[in-house]
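HUMAN: Now follow token order:
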Amino acid sequence: MFTGIIESLGSVTHLEKDGDNLHITIDSNITNNLKIDQSVAHNGVCLTVVEINNSEYVVTAIKETLDKTNIGALNIGDEVNLERAMKLGDRLDGHIVQGHVDQVAMCTNIEALNGSWVFSFDYDPTRNNITIEKGSITVNGTSLTVVNSGKNNFSVAIIPYTYEHTCFKNFKQGTKVNLEFDVIGKYVARLMELK
């Protein structure tokens, strides 16, 4: 379980295909706090640490993960948003994030304002995921509040701290991102389908 509050950025240093799997090596300033078999969210995707070597660690993405997220599009040198699993008793500063990506979306617009940015995204509406204005959404693992919501699109406002300390500073129109919709909203949407 995660909160969507990004702890650090990591850098991809090595990618290795192994059958349908992809082994990803990340260099990070939180590596010395990790242990093998620990869960870490990478751009919102929960992956297990399988190897640690100095400041680098390795995680493995299987076919299911590669098919449903943007993890397979990573290149050496890319930055990724990192968050370790939350500890019981900590404050929940973001919202309840499972690290299970629902689908990908595409960045369609970036509007620079005087001291903030509005990022807009389109996603496939046939997956029956929804956003609501002032509701929560996770974009590449970052817990955010929806400021505009449509049938297959939404926007989020980004403050300077989030812009500088997450992958948002690297987004362009056409960038594919991982989305995890609010877990409570998903249950409500599923219950409505069953009626």
About this structure: Residues 183-194 form the longest helix (12 residues).
